[in-house]
Amino acid sequence: MSYAAQSDIEDVFSPANVAAWSLFETGTPTGSADPTRIATALALADGQINAFFIGGPYQVPLVCVACQPVVRYWAAVIAGVWLYGSRFTTSYIDYTGNRYIALQTAVFADMDLYKSGVKRLDAPQRYPQPSAPTAER
């Protein structure tokens, strides 16, 4: 199960951009989105999120209810930036001021706040703690 779907990427970057970025064509891409490349982007996003949280406070894959929209957004941004950056016509995307790299950087900064405990996900803890103090005799 992916954290996000094609429609989530489209919500962030627009259906037209996702379709164009998913096609390996020179010039102006035409046609509908390539589902195989979108699936690859989503799998990569899942892997990056899981790898980020390995060794952190949560079990991976993350299973959230209330925070599912947060995790979905992370995955959509990571997948969309991968589609954008892996286009055939792109030489490189890591230049200063690239808004998509800035968006991805903000996602990883937000993920870091959750991993460090500043913010909390409703995902199962990797090492569950007792909910109340225990008395020792």
Q: Could you give a short account of the major beta sheet?
A: none
Distance between the termini: 46 Å
- The number of helical elements comes to 5
Q: How many distinct beta strands? A: 0
Question: Per the principal axes of the C-alpha atoms, what is the gross shape?
Answer: elongated
In what range is the share of β-strand residues?
under 5%
Structural class: mainly alpha
Poorly predicted runs of 5 or more residues: none
CA radius of gyration is: 18 Å
Helical residues, percent: 40-55%
Output mean pLDDT: 87
The H-and-E topology, N to C, reads as HHHHH
List the helices and strands and how they pair.
Blueprint: H1 6-13, H2 15-22, H3 35-53, H4 68-85, H5 99-116
Supply database-style keywords:
5 helices; mainly alpha; elongated; 137 residues
General description of the model:
The chain is mainly alpha-helical. Helix content is 52%, strand content 0%. The protein contains 5 helices and no strands. It has helices at 6-13, 15-22, 35-53, 68-85, 99-116. Helix 1 packs across helix 2 (15-22), helix 3 crosses helix 4 and helix 4 runs antiparallel to helix 5 (99-116). The longest helix is centred in the first third of the chain and has 19 residues, at 35-53. The radius of gyration is 18 Å and the shape is elongated. The mean pLDDT is 87.
